[in-house]
Design a protein that fits this description.
heterodimer; A: 86 residues; mainly alpha; elongated; B: 612 residues; 3 strands
C-alpha cells in the first residue's frame, strides 16, 4: 500500500511519464504524414519512404512507445510503492 | 490491511484448447479444398465452410455458461494480457477494417491511412491515459464508471442513453458486413443471413456474457487473422517469392507507381479540407497509390486521424474489455498486444490493396492489343468489377471495382482455388461477429446494469442481475439484426460516425475524469451532451445536406467543444465533494483494493448495520 506522503510525488512522476510517452508520439503521428510527399522521393526496402514511414514506421513507433511506457510506468509504481500486491 | 482475494487461476490448458480450435478451422478449410478437387458441389462446401466455424464459436460460447456476476460481466478478471489485447484489436478492426479499409486503401492508397493511423494511435492513448485507471476502478460498463466516479445517477442514465447510439451504429455496420459476406458464400439473402448470425451470436453470448464473448472472440480473431493473412501471403509468395506480404510489397508498389506515371494519372492537389474517400459501390482508380493527399486534404487527414484516435480510445464497446484483465499492469500490457495485432492487421490490409492493384496494372500495361484476362471477366460476372469501354488499349479509367469487394478480388485475380475465396469470406464473418459481439455485450450490460438497475447503486444479488443483462443482449441482437437486414447506408459512414460520437461525447470527459480533479457531474453532463449534439448536427449535415458545413470538420470540432463545455461548466458549478475527491486519488494509484469492489463492500456493510 502506498504511503500518504508518497502520493504527490508518485502522481507527478506519472504525469511526466504520460507526457514523455504521448507528446513525441502524437507529434510524429500528426507531422510525419504531412511531409510524406517529400520523403517519397527516397526509397527504403523498395517502398517510397514517406509511405513506408506512415504505415510501417508508425506501427513500429506505436508498439515501441507502448512497450516502453509499460515497463517505465511499472518501474515508477514500484519505486513509489504504488504497485499491486500480487 | 490484509485483503483476502479469491485465487482465480488461469486455465492452464487455454493454449491447447485454442490450438485445437485453430487446427480444426484449418482442417475444415483444407478438407473443403480436397473435396473441391473431388468434385463436390460448390454450394455444399460453402455451407460447410460457413457453418462449421459458427458451430465451434457457439460451442465455445456455450462452454462459458455462468451465473456468477464477476464471470458474466468481466470474464472473472483473469484473462491474460495477450488474449485480451488480441480480442481488443479484433473487435476494433472488425469486418469494417477487413473489408472497407482494404477497399479504401486500394482506391485512395496513402490517404486512407488516416483511418488506420488514428485507430492505432487511439490504442496508444488508451494505454497511457485511460486503461490503467479504468481497470483500477473496475466497473463493468462505461456509464457505471461515470455514475460511480461522480456519484450521480442522472449522469449514469444519460450516458447510458447517449452511448447506446454509437454502439448500435457500430453493431449495425459490423453485422451487415458479416451478413453480406455470408450471403455471398451461400447465395441466400442478406436478411436471412443477418438473422442466422444474430441467432448464432445469441447462442454464443447469452450463456456467459463477457466470459463467452472473450473466448469466442479469441477464436473468431484467430480465424479472421488466418483468413486475412493466408491468401495474401500466398500471393506474395507467387509475386515476390517471399510470403511476407507486409514487408515485400515495396518493389511491387514501385512498379505500380511507374505504370501510374506512364498512364498519366494526375497529381491532385486537393483543397486542404477535402475528404473524398470512395463510398460503397463501383469506382474507378483516380489517384496514385503512394502519393500523399489526393482525395483527402492535409487538414482533413489530421482531423480524421484525431477523430478516429479519440473514437477508438474512448469506444464504449471496447473499454469494458479492460475490466477482464487480472490487474492494472496487465491492462497496460493488453494495450501493447492490441497495438501490435492491430498494426499487423492494418499492414496486411494495405498489402492486399497493393497486390490487387498490381494485378490490375499488369492488365493495363500489357503490350499488344487489349485482352480481358479470365480473372477479370470472372470479377465482372460476379459483379465485383465493370469494364467501362472496349478499346484497343486499356487505360486506368477502363475499369471500375467494387469498394467492398477488393478483399475477395485478390484470390480470384491470383487464380487461387475457390477455397481461399471462401476462407476470406469466413474471415469477414468471424471479424464481424467479434466486433458485433463486443458491441452486443456492452449494450446488454449497459441495459441491465445502468438502465434496469440504474437508479440503485446496489444491484440485486443472484441471477436476477444477470438475467436482466441477458434480456439486454437479446434486445440488442434483435435491433441489430433488423437494422443489418434493412439499413442501406454505407457501413464505413456508420462506423466513422460511431467513432465520432464516442470521441466527441466520451473521450474528453473520460480523460478529464482522471487527469483533472475539479471536473464535476455537471461538467460531465455538459461535455456529453455538447459532443453528442455536435456530431448529430454533423450527421444531419452529411445526410440531409441542408446545413452548409463540412461534416468531417464539424465532427472533429466536437472533441475540443465538448472538452471546453465540460471545463467551463465545472468551473462555474460547485467543486466535487470530499468522497469524490478521495475516489480520484485512489483511481490514480494502481495498488490497493479495486474501487468498485470496495464501494460494493461498504454498501453491503452499511445495509447489515442498518438491519442489526
Amino acid at each position: 500500500m502506498i504511503e500518504r506522503k508518497e502520493r504527490k510525488p508518485y502522481w507527478r512522476h506519472t504525469k511526466w511519464q504520460m507526457l514523455a510517452s504521448l507528446v513525441p508520439f502524437l507529434a510524429v503521428t500528426i507531422i510525419l504524414p504531412l511531409y510524406a510527399d517529400k520523403l517519397n522521393a527516397n526509397k527504403f526496402l523498395g517502398f517510397p519512404l514517406g509511405y513506408f514511414l506512415a504505415a510501417h514506421g508508425l506501427v513500429l513507433i506505436a508498439v515501441v512507445i507502448v512497450a516502453t511506457f509499460v515497463s517505465q510506468q511499472d518501474a515508477i509504481d514500484h519505486w513509489h510503492g504504488a504497485h499491486e500486491d500480487n | 490491511m490484509a485483503m483476502v482475494r479469491p485465487q482465480r487461476s488461469i486455465n492452464p490448458r487455454l493454449g491447447i484448447y485454442l490450438g485445437i480450435f485453430l487446427s480444426l478451422f484449418m482442417a475444415i478449410a483444407l478438407l473443403t479444398l480436397i473435396f473441391e478437387g473431388l468434385g463436390v458441389g460448390r454450394l455444399t462446401l460453402a455451407w460447410a465452410m460457413l457453418l462449421c466455424p459458427l458451430a465451434l464459436y457457439g460451442v465455445i460460447g456455450a462452454g462459458g455458461l455462468t451465473n456468477d456476476a464477476l464471470d458474466f460481466f468481466a470474464a472473472g478478471r483473469r484473462v491474460p494480457a495477450f488474449y485480451n489485447g488480441f480480442t481488443l484489436a479484433t473487435a476494433a478492426f472488425g469486418a469494417t477494417g477487413t473489408v472497407v479499409l482494404t477497399g479504401m486503401l486500394f482506391f485512395a492508397g496513402f490517404d486512407a491511412l488516416c483511418l488506420a493511423i488514428g485507430a492505432l494511435a487511439g490504442f496508444v492513448v488508451m494505454a497511457v491515459m485511460l486503461a490503467p485507471f479504468l481497470r483500477k476502478f473496475g466497473t463493468f460498463t462505461v456509464p457505471s464508471y461515470l455514475g460511480r466516479r461522480f456519484d450521480s445517477r442522472p449522469l449514469r442514465l444519460l450516458s447510458a442513453a447517449i452511448l447506446s447510439v454509437p454502439i448500435l451504429m457500430l453493431l449495425t455496420a459490423e453485422l451487415r458486413l458479416a451478413a453480406e459476406a455470408a450471403s455471398w458464400l451461400t447465395g441466400q439473402s442478406r436478411a436471412t443471413m443477418a438473422v442466422l448470425l444474430a441467432v448464432i451470436l445469441a447462442l454464443t453470448l447469452v450463456p456467459g456474457g463477457m466470459r463467452s464473448l472473450t473466448w469466442a472472440s479469441v477464436a473468431q480473431g484467430l480465424a479472421a487473422f488466418v483468413a486475412l493473412v493466408v491468401p495474401v501471403a500466398i500471393v506474395a509468395g507467387l509475386v515476390t517469392t517471399l510470403p511476407l506480404p507486409q514487408l515485400t510489397n515495396g518493389p511491387v508498389l514501385r512498379a505500380i507507381g511507374r505504370v501510374e506515371a506512364a498512364q498519366g494519372l494526375p497529381y491532385i492537389i486537393p483543397p486542404t479540407l477535402a475528404f473524398d474517400l470512395p463510398g460503397q459501390g463501383l469506382h474507378e482508380m483516380s489517384k496514385r497509390f503512394a502519393d500523399a493527399f489526393g482525395l483527402v486534404g492535409p487538414s482533413a487527414f489530421v482531423m480524421v486521424t484525431m477523430t478516429s484516435l479519440a473514437g477508438v480510445a474512448a469506444a464504449p464497446w471496447l473499454l469494458p474489455r479492460l475490466a477482464s484483465t487480472p490487474g492494472v499492469y496487465e491492462a497496460r500490457k493488453t494495450l501493447g498486444w492490441a497495438t501490435f495485432t492491430f498494426g499487423i492487421s492494418m499492414l496486411t490490409a494495405a498489402s492486399i490493396a497493393v497486390f490487387f492493384r498490381d494485378y490490375v496494372m499488369d492488365v493495363i500495361s500489357a503490350p499488344g492489343p487489349a485482352a480481358v484476362p479470365a480473372w477479370l471477366s470472372e470479377l465482372v460476372t460476379r459483379g465485383l468489377a465493370t469494364i467501362n469501354e472496349e478499346s484497343s488499349r486499356f487505360r486506368v479509367s477502363s475499369f471500375a471495382f467494387d469498394r467492398n469487394g477488393i478483399l475477395l478480388s485478390l484470390p480470384i485475380a491470383a487464380g487461387l482455388p475457390e477455397m481461399l475465396l471462401n476462407l476470406s469470406l469466413v474471415g469477414v464473418v468471424a471479424a464481424g461477429l467479434a466486433a458485433a459481439g463486443a458491441a452486443v455485450v456492452s449494450l446488454g450490460s449497459t441495459f441491465g446494469e445502468d438502465l434496469i438497475f440504474g437508479l440503485t447503486w446496489e444491484p440485486p444479488e443472484g441471477a436476477v442481475r444477470i438475467h436482466a443483462s441477458r434480456i439486454g443482449i437479446g434486445l440488442a441482437l434483435a435491433i441489430g439484426a433488423l437494422a443489418a437486414a434493412t439499413v442501406s447506408s454505407d457501413p464505413f459512414r456508420l462506423t466513422y460516425f460511431a467513432l465520432a460520437f464516442s470521441g466527441a461525447s466520451l473521450f474528453p470527459i473520460l480523460v478529464l475524469s482522471i487527469w483533472w480533479k475539479r471536473l464535476n457531474a455537471y461538467g460531465c453532463i455538459a461535455g456529453l451532451s455538447t459532443g453528442f449534439s455536435i456530431v448529430s448536427l454533423a450527421i444531419l449535415s452529411a445526410e440531409g445536406g441542408f446545413l452548409n458545413v463540412d461534416p468531417i470538420l464539424l465532427a472533429a470540432s466536437g472533441i475540443p467543444a465538448s472538452a471546453l463545455a465540460a471545463i467551463g461548466v465545472s468551473l462555474t458549478t460547485p467543486a466535487p465533494g470530499r468522497h469524490v475527491l478521495e475516489l480520484v486519488r485512489d483511481i490514480r494509484v494502481p495498488g490497493g483494493e479495486i474501487l468498485y469492489d470496495r464501494e460494493m463492500r461498504l454498501q453491503r456493510q452499511k445495509r447489515h448495520r442498518q438491519r442489526s
